[in-house]
Amino acid sequence: MNLADLNKVALAMVTPGKGILAADESSGTIKKRFDAIKVESTEENRRDYREMLFRSTEAMSKYVSGVILYDETIWQNAKDGTPLVKLIEQSGAIPGIKVDEGTQALPQCPGELVTVGLDKLAERLKKYYERGARFAKWRAVIDIGSGIPTMTAISVNAHALARYAALCQAAQIVPIVEPEVLMDGDHDIDRCYDVTQRVLNKTFQELRVQRVELEGMVLKPNMAISGKKCAKQASVDEVAEKTVRLLKACVPAAVPGIAFLSGGQSDEEATAHLDAMNRIGNLPWKLTFSYGRALQAAPQKAWSGKAENVAAGQRAFTHRARMNALASKGEWETGLEKKVA
Ligand code: 13P
């Protein structure tokens, strides 16, 4: 492992003014997104949609530091035969790859999940590196509910995240470590805070045990936020203040950067929260975005599967990317939302 090179890539991924496009929806998830815009989820449509994003020259060259791809996409070519991964490289962004293989029910823990995909991961990482991937992603999912999460679910998921991260670094690939505490329940922000604290502490404990080099990784956490069904929704300032306090308590300063998931927040909420955190300032790590839904909902709607809407889809994507890029520097304002370029 060359740690200096891993650190360079990790720092590039969290460059202020840029963030990560999470375009790594599994076949099941992208089908749900396409269903919502009444587009059939064929291989060609998935390719056309993602090609539209990667050919958004302004967004990709100015506001996107890296793109997380799904296995199908990293091997796909654009309509003109150019590998999609080359389009990303040509824009100046770094290609990345989702390497987990989804979740399975966790034995003895009803309602809880463990992320799988460690088998043969070393061999897969080698092929992805040859294809151009310089970072990877593995997502663990922790749900909040009555009696959950159990410490069992937190431990096995943290263990798998650290196993994955160590294998990535051995393959000269920067691991994005993503322990996602879901915001689907009716819990309040303080319960989210407590659970996320346990999850992050366990995750960093495992990363240390398995000798993962913190300078060569990026953390992708959820924010401390109210559950979607909670009657009392925390304000933007409360989310920002509590998330920063939580991260300061749990994330060593050796980690170069933190790139948040959006997790079901509205587009503008995800931007406002990131912006408010960066306005607090004086942070030991860079804070940016690694959004899936909060970057893609608008372009998906504008595109709706029609070739004549590609320019509109690209405009919508560029706008969201620019808003989040400003938020990564604490320079976003709600008034800018109206001024679509
Ligand atoms: P969302 O921003 O839609 O939560 O997706 C980010 C991601 O990569 C989840 O694994």
From TrEMBL:
<keyword id="KW-0456">Lyase</keyword>
<dbReference type="InterPro" id="IPR013785">
    <property type="entry name" value="Aldolase_TIM"/>
</dbReference>
<comment type="pathway">
    <text>Carbohydrate degradation; glycolysis; D-glyceraldehyde 3-phosphate and glycerone phosphate from D-glucose: step 4/4.</text>
</comment>
<protein>
    <recommendedName>
        <fullName>Probable fructose-bisphosphate aldolase class 1</fullName>
        <ecNumber>4.1.2.13</ecNumber>
    </recommendedName>
</protein>
<dbReference type="Pfam" id="PF00274">
    <property type="entry name" value="Glycolytic"/>
</dbReference>
<dbReference type="GO" id="GO:0006096">
    <property type="term" value="P:glycolytic process"/>
</dbReference>
<dbReference type="GO" id="GO:0004332">
    <property type="term" value="F:fructose-bisphosphate aldolase activity"/>
</dbReference>
<comment type="similarity">
    <text>Belongs to the class I fructose-bisphosphate aldolase family.</text>
</comment>
<dbReference type="InterPro" id="IPR000741">
    <property type="entry name" value="FBA_I"/>
</dbReference>
<keyword id="KW-0324">Glycolysis</keyword>
